[in-house]
TrEMBL record:
Family label: Belongs to the calreticulin family.
GO function term, MF aspect, one: unfolded protein binding
Record-given protein name: Si:ch211-274f20.2
Cellular component terms per the entry's GO annotation: endoplasmic reticulum membrane
TM annotation in the entry: 438-459
Lineage start: Eukaryota, Metazoa, Chordata, Craniata, Vertebrata
Cystines in this chain: 122-156
Species assigned in the record: Paramormyrops kingsleyae
GO biological process, one term: ERAD pathway
Biased composition (Basic and acidic residues): 239-260, 471-491, 501-521
Annotated signal sequence range: 1-18
Membrane-protein topology: Single-pass type I membrane protein
Region Disordered: start-end pairs: 228-260, 470-521
UniProt keyword list: Acetylation, Calcium, Chaperone, Disulfide bond, Endoplasmic reticulum, Membrane, Phosphoprotein, Repeat, Signal, Transmembrane, Transmembrane helix
Amino acid sequence: MKLQSAISLCACLFLTLADEGRQNTYRSPAIPEEAHFAETFDSGPLDRKWVLSKAQKAEKEDILKYNGRWAVEEGTSGNRGLVLKSPGRHHAIAAYLRTIFHFTDKPLILQYEVLFQNGVDCGGAYIKLLTHTDHLRLSQFCDTTPYTIMFGPDKCGGNQKIYFIFRHRNPLTGKYQEKHARQTAEDLSRYFTDRQPHLYTLRLYPDNRYEILIDEYLVSKGSLLEDVDPSVNPPQEVADPHDTKPADWDDRPRIPDPMARKPMDWDEEAPELIPDPAAQRVHGWLEDEQPFISDPEAQRPDDWDEDMDGKWEPPLVSNPVCSDAVGCGQWEPPLISNPAYKGKWSPPLIQNPNYQGQWSPRTVTNPEYFEDSQPFQMSPVAAVGLELWSTTGDVLFDNILLCSDVTVAQRWTTDTWGQRQTPGLLMQLLMATEQRPWLWALYVFTVGLPAILFISFMWPDKTFGPPDQDYCYKKTDKPQPDSPHDPERDPGLWAHSENTSSRKRETRQANRKADLELKID
């Protein structure tokens, strides 16, 4: 009865927790003052700070380059987000930061959520941090607009990636070059197929380290100086473009043997395949019939002009006579491998006595060499933008944050993505004790009682003693093996027992004999 009561209490508790979980609703978080940019899209229609691109196609100035539609819609968890609506079309939208981000002595943290509501076949969901320039106009935002960082997921076919690209300025020429962080070895397929929101986070540190996280799980990390392609700093030495290989340089490790001669019986003209001499024509082969004949029902078209079209010939059709025969037309034996075939002769290879090794040009100082020890110090960022194309629509973006404080980012994560994560049953039970400490007594009772009953019923029929002692068996009807110290198994004790019994018998016989003699007398 106690066990049944405990189970009933647990069931009631679980139902209460489940009901509380269902009653939890999404709460829009407060915008952190420390953030350079923060957006939840919970206020309703697109805010005026978001600017749709009006860039036009270069070849057709009256046609917009980005004709995809954006909308703010409610997601699966009650929160609202920015949704890319038009499959197969180009989309572009951007918003200015609250304050320009400068790469100084604080980290850059960029994070946002993506939900592929219909899955994705081919398309990206990355975000661009647009470079601060005097010419930046969000209404003309397009693929050629300078950016500092591009980050986010991308998929096409079976190729899934998490892009992290930054544009590095060459201090010698002033030109920019894209640097791509190396892809993670993690399997990313489920983030594109499970139709669940996922949190993508990029962290850049002033010591040139970077970290990429998905759902707060670290999937990639590295250094801006060592783990990007092409490398930030060019090599100090390069191959001399004016150096050429000498004409007499022999870089052949093996050469044909000049002393080898083709054998006299080597026939290079022998064919690889020959007719099988043992083959015979199959009985029933119609050699006088052709497999295809002219269609007897075909007629020349009325507009056929032999002067222009040539002589008309009816099309060929299968010979009906051959439909039931094993074959028609001229019979030829099958081909088999020629045992005399050897192919073209070539001399065997030997080590080249004049081999000089593989030639390579000499190296010279790289005239374009420079050393940038602080690639973290990138061009300042003035806006965030989404410039995308996807074969699948309804891609939802939410809770975009750009800041320089890890604590602020963690609090934002807890208030946004974290509040929509359903904790497991064990976590729910532990969380319930924070407001109801008396639940610990219930947990101990409901867990301890079944454990005691289990031990009582399932404990073995023997108790364990010290390692050097025998087992002490309980009293049962099951036969038990003899102990090695059983007196019945000790030969010395057995002999002593036999001697004692013999003496007792002799004494009893002597006493009985004395009694008989007394009676006779």
